[in-house]
Design goal:
By secondary structure, the chain is an all-alpha fold. It is built from one helix and no strands.
């Protein structure tokens, strides 16, 4: 069983995981080509999802229609 007297002292809080008193990390520049490609890929994924969802809805309507008979 541990007691509070046997615990090591807490470590000093560092600046964002780096050594204490270090300057903050430099910000990265925006890569507009990469952002454009990511946006196009995301829109393409959304378009494919919606097309698949529309075909799924058609399937469900047909299933419900045939199920009633």
């Amino acid at each position: 069983m541990y007691r509070y007297e046997n615990l090591p002292p807490p470590s000093p809080i560092s600046n964002r995981g780096g050594p204490p008193n270090s300057p903050p990390p430099k910000k990265k520049k925006f890569d507009f080509i990469c952002l454009k490609n990511n946006a196009c890929n995301s829109l393409n994924d959304v378009e494919h999802f919606l097309c698949d969802f529309n075909s799924f809805l058609k399937y469900m309507k047909l299933y419900n229609l045939l199920k009633r008979k």
